[in-house]
Amino acid sequence: MELIKTFADKYFAHVPSLRITDIVEILIISFLVYHIMVWIKNTKAWALFKGVVLIMVFIILAAVFEMNTILWIARNVVMYGAVALVVVLQPELRKALEQLGKKEFLASLLPFEIGKTEQGLFSDKTVHEIAKACVEMGKVKTGALIVVQQNDPLTEYERTGIEVDGIITSQLLINIFEHNTPLHDGAVIVRGDRITSATCYLPLSDNMSLSKDLGTRHRAGVGISEVTDSMTVIVSEETGKISVAYSGVLYRGLSSAELEEQLKKIQNKPVEEKEHRLWKGWPKNEKNK
């Protein structure tokens, strides 16, 4: 006991007392750091963050081995690097500030919902209307590109198009994608049971494993599924076949029943269950064929 008392007096004598305000401060900082990390993880900043960590490790090694030239370069580059990061992350930072100013921000931080349903859910009628429209457009080889939003916001892509804000019906979708109409070129974005925008521009996929006979419409469908958790329905203008892109993978030649089945798989899933294993049950020969 005497040995333990001596050890405690030697090493813990100068440890400051922990107050209630200190505990609250630690909790607040932990809460903020956690949500900042979650925000980084869900944006393009995640790859940049990993790159910055790698550079910091390299600088630490340079300091350990006293590589003075590298340390001098690092000291002079840090200030410019910070400015460059702000410029590169400008869209993500703007989006974060916009979310901070929204009334729903506090509710989004809480682990439960307050009098609201999960954003992005859609009804069985919407599933049926999308499938019906795709089949009808496929029969006459009318190209279509329909992006169904889940959790990731698609606001930046909606801004590239024309606002529609209409309830989804097969007739409305067919009219939008009809040849020689003002809204037929580009993608339609669906949120819930409504079409939010049409003629939207989407990022093209750089996936070299995609079939060479696929055009811009299919590459755009795969591209948006690579950067968001959305599901994209594509109708080929050349063949009339229906395809679905999810998590960067393209599945082609779907029937009406198969399309409805896949849309229903994401219809009411909780956030934690929306994983990229959604397509685990598909036959392997369906992939990118």
Automatic annotation (TrEMBL):
One GO process term, biological-process aspect: cAMP biosynthetic process
Query: What domain of life is recorded for the organism?
Result: Bacteria
Q: What does this protein do?
A: Catalyzes the condensation of 2 ATP molecules into cyclic di-AMP (c-di-AMP), a second messenger used to regulate differing processes in different bacteria.
* MF annotations from Gene Ontology: adenylate cyclase activity; ATP binding; diadenylate cyclase activity
Q: Which SUPFAM superfamilies match?
A: YojJ-like
EC number per UniProt: 2.7.7.85
Q: What reaction gets catalysed by this protein?
A: 2 ATP = 3',3'-c-di-AMP + 2 diphosphate
Q: What is this protein called?
A: Diadenylate cyclase
Sorted keywords for this record are:
ATP-binding, Cell membrane, Membrane, Nucleotide-binding, Nucleotidyltransferase, Transferase, Transmembrane, Transmembrane helix
Family matches, as HAMAP family: DacA (MF_01499)
The biased composition feature labelled Basic and acidic residues covers: 270-289
* Sequence ranges assigned to domain DAC in this UniProt record: 90-256
GN (gene name): dacA
Transferase among keywords:
yes
Residue ranges crossing the lipid bilayer per the database entry: 20-40, 47-65, 71-89
Top-level enzyme category: transferase
InterPro entries recorded: C-di-AMP_synthase (IPR014046), CdaA (IPR034701), CdaA_N (IPR045585), DisA (IPR050338), DNA_integrity_DisA_N_sf (IPR036888), DNA_integrity_scan_DisA_N (IPR003390)
Q: How does it assemble?
A: Probably a homodimer.
Task: Return the similarity comment.
Answer: Belongs to the adenylate cyclase family. DacA/CdaA subfamily.
| Record region (Disordered) | 269-289
